[in-house]
Task: structure prediction
Amino acid sequence: MSAVSRSLLRTRGQRDSGRVSMVELFFDLVFVFAVTQLSHGLLAHLSPLGALQTLMLFLAVWWLWIFTSWFTNWLDPEKMPVRVLLFALMLGGLLLSSSIPEAFAEKGVVFGCVFAAMQVGRTLFMLWALRNESRAQFRNFIRILAWFLISAVLWIWGGFEDDPQRTILWMLAIAVEYVSPSVAFWVPGLGRSSTAEWDIDGGHLSERCGLFVIIALGESILVTGATFAESSWNATTIAAFLASFLGSIAMWWMYFDTSAERASHRISQSSDPGRIARLAYTYLHLLIIAGVIVCAVADEIVLVHPGHAEAMGIATILAGPALYLLGNALFKWASNDRKLPPLSHLVGLLLLAVLAPFAFGQHFSALELGVATTSVMVLVAAWESLALRRPPRPVP
Result:
């Protein structure tokens, strides 16, 4: 067999060489379940501690998915060993997702051990795949492995502890994982990598992240539909259902109408796609996904309790749109070389801030607040859409 046929890496520069494969989409189905578990977990534990724990689990799930997407940007999913790896990761992902509701109780060992095994095992596979390939990339993954081994100890150790020790250890593990790319995986004796060495296919990674946004939006619609189906259909619940649906359309519009395609073109044409991918797709997309998940929880609160919401419910109804707007604003700013984030998004965030004191002062019912936040989202989506379609002013 030739060296080319033995290589597990994607070929570059050929037609459809960067397309998302069916096995990658199959792999993503596990994370539909994970997103559902996270939203249900937040709804069941709607308290400051519950929100913190859900945030920690979300950060772990997102990091697992985005790093796998980086790996399959280099690895060819059509090669049998890579396909087997993805199936193994799917199994691990199902175990991980199943343990989410009890991750801070009796299933902490499962969550911590499975997460650590997936991160370290996938990196070891990458080192094996790169053994006869680029030395620079091989060194990159030695650095990544060093960081993941440190976090793995914290994940496993935390799994065997009770709270608050578990929370503290897992917070440290998350910090290690999230800091590592920002310092270019610096390791004593090996130095740091550079984004120029992260020769990714920008179009592939942007498509993968867009598909994850669709996963999150789809889960939001499923939650809304299931809750509405179980509710008594009257004017109040129908209004709540329509507000939720319009909010989902506004979220789709803000991301997919023009910004996703523009960002994909920008990263595909960039001379340093790794730099854009690290900030715009790896870090900033987690705000977008978090916003969708929190919006799904908020929609269920409005449908089930349209007349009144407690302080945490009010915070959830406001936080979902705020996270989504902030994530989109920063993503568009980082991926399109804007001098400032879009004005429409900044105004939307300002309007949500103006709503907050009235909401916490119990001047709105949950339904009225939900309609108000949906109106802000629709306004932002319409404003940006009209602004981008306006013909440029003629140069005098």
Residues 202-389 form one domain. The chain is about 75% helix and 0% strand. The longest helix spans residues 202-229. Confidence is low (pLDDT under 50) at residues 1-5.
